[in-house]
């Protein structure tokens, strides 16, 4: 998939001279070789390769640390007690496996559309169309959620500006950042993610010192591992609470896949994807399991302060860290801005990729002289502004519908990744085995096991009062999108996508049917 400018002329054939579908057609401009720092060059899709290795490393690390970890963990602790660690471990393992599958495909076929493009190639045009637009929809709604969350914090600091004003300011600033260049997005995300990573790392180190009673000046008695069992045992609410905890924490992991979309805008996407995929285990282990473990060993799980102030603030207060609430506000705001920044980037690149396959307006596929898909960015942010308006005008009706109807999209995306990897592994082995530098473990058994885990979570959500509306409304929206894509394919008379004996490669365009 490439930008509109790299479409072959009617009746022409795409050039595959490099074996990866990225060679220029006779009528298109040659893509200059990427310099070592990735600046200035453009990839086969016309996007600037402006993301440096340090940008991608921090995007990969920060992608698994969302605001949900800071503000949502207390609900999981209240629901499952210390057993929430098992919930985080189960979901973390599922995400590691999904990322491994995605990494395998992304390293072999890097593209701005990532899993949507792979669903297109493996399952059919309907699948790529559907999962791409659902994912775009998810992030557009996230823009409104995060803009509002950031506005709440900022209004507390500067009440002279109303909350809706702060939401608009935040959206405008980050939109402008994304419009300038992909390098400016990467730079902002580097510092946003860096603050999150540094904060959690310091929290884990200080917390563990306090847990074992060796932190000078700590107010916490340092009970070691006693709090994991001294308030009703490790499973105070029974084994079933682990599954309830899974439902509460699963969506805080969304965003891990962003690095595979961003990798296409770096000078060495294969290396970037391989590095990100290989490091996902320790990232989840330290940032999720490590930080929650510290909270649960510093305080009993049923301590009232966890529910009143949040798990991290309560833990810092127990140590005697002054101004813990204000410190966490800064960190949460950083996490919110990071999520907003990445959400806008992700939505725009998905819209750009869909346009490249003829599944979105052509304008979304055009890039500026700086290699930025500005129309895709502005189109995405317009819907984000509309969602922000809904959040303030009709929070309990229209916006609640948007939230619920996008709530299970993460699980749909992960399912699409699993099924795509099942189909594409064989194609990669046959066509370009040297590109299989990242391999899914125990294929296909772990792939099928992951599919079973995701389906189990979806079914279990149907029996949960909070999860049921999310699954049902998300399924309704997904069904409508799939139905539209199938009708569209039928109207085009079967000319909607690649034939079984020819799969679209990165850099190759499928001309849109009339």
Automatic annotation (TrEMBL):
GO cellular component: membrane
Principal localisation: membrane
Transmembrane region(s): 56-77, 83-102, 133-158, 164-185, 197-218, 238-259, 280-301, 375-395, 401-422, 442-463, 469-487
Region (Disordered) residue spans: 1-47, 494-514
Localisation: Membrane
Swiss-Prot/TrEMBL GO biological process terms: amino acid transport; transmembrane transport
Alphabetical keyword list: Amino-acid transport, Membrane, Transmembrane, Transmembrane helix, Transport
Its membrane topology: Multi-pass membrane protein
Domain of life according to the entry: Bacteria
PROSITE patterns: AMINO_ACID_PERMEASE_1 (PS00218)
Amino acid permease/ SLC12A domain boundaries: 55-468
InterPro entries, per the entry: AA-permease/SLC12A_dom, Amino_acid_permease_CS
Family (UniProt): Belongs to the amino acid-polyamine-organocation (APC) superfamily. Amino acid transporter (AAT) (TC 2.A.3.1) family.
Protein name in the entry: Amino acid transporter
Species name: Streptomyces tsukubensis
